[in-house]
Amino acid sequence: MMRISRPSRRLALLGATAAVGLSVTAITLPGAAGAAPRHQERPTIVLEHGAFADASSWDGVVKRLQRAGYPVVAAANPLRGPATDAAYLRSVIDNIDGPVVLVGHSYGGTVISQAAHGLEDKVKALVYIAAFLPDTGESSLGLTNKSPGSTLGQAIEPVNYALPDGSRGADVYIKPDKFPQQFAADVPTDKARLMAAGQRPIAAAALEEESTRAAWKTIPSWSLVTTEDLNIPVAAQRFMSQRAHARTTEVDASHAVSVSHPDAVTRIVERAARTVR
């Protein structure tokens, strides 16, 4: 297990420079006589956000991966439940040519674990960022409650809703005044407040819905554990990572590690992507 507290930018910049050089040498002009079709040298990185966030939480990571030459998709997570969300993510994967590396943050880890099941020929690596790695029959809420350290229960509030067909449900938000400390304690306050205002709620039932698949059993996995996390206890993250035999790195960071430490997140994603052949 690797541990870092201050991610270095130097390696990321060197990786970006090398990637640019490789892409230039591989370019051929479309339609040129005798030119072979361009071979996609790098897998597509698909980023799945979790609860109380949206795809913009990956912006810093996307920028770095694109600079290094990777095609990237920051998918929209419906946040309705593992089965529904995994089916949606599979439709995204189905529309991508070539190999894929799936990256999930928080509840997004539950989604990628289910979505990648049976796709071993296409999904070559799973990367969990401060995320759940549930086994069959486990829920996000159940895994959180197995270890002390989460204060999420005191920071959230439900919002009931009714749909035109008469069905009812409840979404869960983090209270805006609690969000900076609970979710993003190491993010600049102005940015954390913007994240609080734009947070995506998750269906309350989604946190209790049990997983039916665990793709980490058949696909190589990497894990980034956040030691200052107030959403998913660090003990739970370590347990799940060890059980999955994930290649694990620890970072002294809040739950919003993709925002506060994009270099660290990018490095672990690139490590996984470099194993794809």
Keywords:
277 residues; seven-stranded parallel beta sheet; 10 strands; alpha/beta; Rossmann fold; three-stranded antiparallel beta sheet
CATH architecture: 3-Layer(aba) Sandwich
How are the strands of the largest sheet arranged? 1-10-9-5-4-2-3
- Distance between the terminal alpha carbons, to the nearest Å? 24 Å
Number of strands: 10
Number of domains: 1
User: H/E element string?
Assistant: EHEHEHEHEHEEHHEEHEHH
Broad shape? globular
How many individual helices? Answer: 10
Overall description:
With 277 residues, this protein is of the alpha/beta class. It has ten helices and ten strands. It has helices at residues 10-26, 59-67, 82-94, 107-115, 140-145, 179-183, 189-197, 234-243, 257-260, 262-274, and strands at residues 2-4, 44-48, 72-75, 100-105, 123-129, 156-162, 168-174, 202-203, 221-226, 247-251. Strands 1-10-9-5-4-2-3 form a seven-stranded parallel beta sheet, sandwiched between helices. Helix 8 (234-243) links the parallel strand 9 and strand 10 (247-251). Helix 2 crosses helix 10 (262-274) and helix 3 crosses helix 4. The longest helix is centred in the N-terminal third of the chain and has 17 residues, at 10-26. It is globular and about 45 Å long. The model is unreliable at 5-39 (pLDDT under 50).
